Amino acid sequence: MKTIVVITKDPLLTSIVNRFLKDSYNLVNFFSMQSSLDYIYNSIPDLMIIDIVTDDPMTVNILNEIKGDPIFGHLPVLAVFGDNFTVSDWDSMLIDDYVRRSFLEMELTVKVSLCLHRAERIVEVNPLTRLPGNIAINKQIQKRLDAGEVFALAYADLDYFKPYNDRYGFSRGDEVLKMLGRLILNTVKGKQPSGSFIGHIGGDDFVFIVDPENIEETAAAIIDNFTKIMLTFYDHEDRTKGCIESVDREGNKRTFPLIGISIGIVHNKFKKFSHYGEMAGAASEMKKYAKISGGHCLKVDKRHVEPDITQKA
Amino acid sequence: MDVQALRSQIEKIDTLPTIPGVLRKLLVVIENPKASLNEVGGFIANDPVLTSRVLKIVNSPIYGFPGRISSVSQALILLGLNVVKGMLLGVSVFEAMQKTMLGLWEHSLGCAITARILAQKKGLTEPEEVSVAALLHDIGKVVLGLKFPEEYKKIMAEAEDKGIFILEAEKKHFTISHAEAGAWIAQKWNFPRNLVEVIEYHHKPHLSNTVPVQTAIVHLSDIIVRAKCFGFAGDNFVPAVNSVAWQTLGLSETDLKETLSELEDSLSSAEDFLLSEA
What we know:
The structure holds 2 protein chains of 2 kinds. Helix content of chain A is 43%, strand content 21%. Chain A is an alpha/beta fold. Chain A has 2 domains: 3-120, Response regulator (Rossmann fold), CATH 3.40.50.2300; 134-300, Reverse transcriptase/Diguanylate cyclase domain (Alpha-Beta Plaits), CATH 3.30.70. In chain A, strands 2-1-3-4-5 form a 5-stranded parallel sheet, sandwiched between helices. In chain A, strands 7-8-6-11-12 form a 5-stranded mixed sheet, sandwiched between helices. A two-stranded antiparallel sheet of chain A has the order 9-10. In chain A, a hairpin with a 2-residue loop joins strand 7 (197-202) and strand 8. Chain B is globular and about 50 Å long. Chain B folds into 2 domains: 17-89, no CATH class; 98-275, Hypothetical protein af1432, CATH 1.10.3210. In chain B, helix 12 (178-188) packs antiparallel against helix 13. Chain B starts with a helix and ends with a helix. The mean pLDDT of chain B is 92. Classes of the chains: A alpha/beta, B mainly alpha. The A-B interface holds A 128, 174-176, 178-179, 182-183, 185-187, 189-190, 225, 228-229, 231-233, 236, 239 and B 37, 63-65, 68-71, 74, 77-81, 125-126, 192, 210.
């Protein structure tokens, strides 16, 4: 059951809230913002309902401080406004939605469920590609494991991305990552429109999930598409040469191959995983094998069947 | 009108219309839920306006890699089927100059096919890039015809009466030609620099610095397709081949003969595409 913190001094409001919400939610009542803080800091609720009355700057100030902290920024806040109350500057009132007192009976239940739903819909995304980020990825894997779903997880990253960044600069490197995000997204959605998932861990690390029978074909298509498109992200001379000159980690001038992509794959068809970290780790290990084999390649974890652990694309 | 004013007028254009026959087929493509990216891509790559729309979207800053993509198949991989189908839903058709435009569509498609064959002959790594450039080389004529339909009709009449090239008549009237107009819109739409350069210099291939071979191929394709009387580029004559471009390509007689014979079949299927009913 979801927890809602309700902050009001008004017994009438408390009773209305209780009447409409107590059967569906775990309600925790406080008389003031100050008195709720200890609770909120120790266990983030799913929603806060706050009674905003005029001449109470303290409540709004504390609320703004809570919402200004990145850890609590996502906590949805539903304000209850008096009928004549207006806000001219939303930066000084960090709430997510409001309901007017005279509409409480009509709107409260719907507003509360919309606020909760909206908060769930907003997944944390990677700012560069807008694909789901780390936390969303872990949740996605765990959710599937908990539900006993059989699926394949692939871990992709680029080979020789650093020399590209060094040679062309970060903003050109970012272009490549944005391109790769779109490419993986559309290739995966093209092979399996429903039930698939694509996430961006960060940097040049991406993951995707499809059904085990689609995974190798999808990964091979990604490698193929990437190899073709990547060429156009090089300047003409490097494209013609087929390599780039840059400096290595020790600062020596060296020739590097063009960017490639390595993909490691695991699935839970035969081997059981219970924790997302375990499965992600196995995929990442497979990706290392792929890299050792020279990139532009995918490796599937088949250790459950035979001692021969890898398969070249 | 001075050149700056003309340029800003042209840069205001957001989208171009296509010809009615293509629109009819387009509905079939959109409504087919099983249409694959390849099929949709093949369809789009036959039409200069649809191709320009896809390239405009994929090269817009929204996706984060402006000016990088110059091939339809790559654009489709990066945009995805839903975005592309949504784009197709918004396509409109020419209301005026339909006959002229149909001729121009045939000419453009013929050039794209010729350029691809020549690019393969020259062993270029990206034949699709060259074929897209050829498909779009006369996009400036579409732009001028759309923005100034009455003037453009006069230009065509004048070219015919005086026996001059349409390029000359455009310059007399606008001080610039369709080549500049096309390059302006291509630049405005964040098309890759190589593509802009081919469009700008397809009548002056000797001025192309970065992509002389691609520009020469498109220049020669333009002339070959005119000489074969395929489509209508607006002129009743065939212009001369630029000598620098000819040297750049260094084609042998056998190369040319092979190209022409390969062209025969491809052109007739192109004609089928444009003239057949949906």
